[in-house]
Amino acid sequence: NQDTYWLYTPSWIQNTVTLPLVNSKQPSILANSLYRWQLNASTQITFNRDGGQSEDQKRQFIGEYASSMKNILLSRTEEERETWLTNQYHDKVTSLSEPEFDVINLSEMAPQLVINSRAKIKPFLDSSANLEYEENDAWLIDELNSMRLQNKHYDEHFTGLKLHTEYLYDTNGIWKITRTPPMLNFKHNFGSLRRQIELTPSKKLIVTTDIEIPEQQIKKNQLEAFNRFLDLLKQESMIRFNGQLLKTSHKSKT
Asked: Is the per-residue pLDDT at 248 higher than 70?
């Protein structure tokens, strides 16, 4: 398998029979990964005085997820890849910008695939008033949407999700952050969500979220409960915070 790093087992062969070529060995089942879908996403947002934003984003796909993304991107020409990534960004993040992308390790046998993007987001905030800001953790909600179980009649195998997202907000001297999102530590039989909040000495806000839902068999009578669990996690995808307009920025605006 040319797309999967050698330390990872390709997803299509997991849970099948394996026979090590060693004396006295017996056939056994090749174990599934605990987390088939592993993604780290970090986003740095700087607010601009015109009410827009500058955004730098890095998505790091790991193991089988890296293999899946490589397969998607390598099947396209360079122009088609740019179009596919742009359409995905517009659909999942925002249509208020035309991002530029760098794809790292696409043609290499590497354990990770990295997609970097840079974007200038068009003005949508009033930088002469106090800040009331909210946005969805875009890649978190996208992953949870894709994990929803559609079957209603049989037990189903969930392949596992491990997601880490980080947002760094720099209000760029326009606002002083006065209210931050809540910290969360939610644990369930199906998995967990943890959100941490940091306001740095330089007045930047860092919001990190970790979701872990290990590989597991979902019984028929648990299917609806599992989807409700995903819905509950999605409700916490919203990031909200407030900021007080700084007088210096107000004077420069007027």
From this structure: no
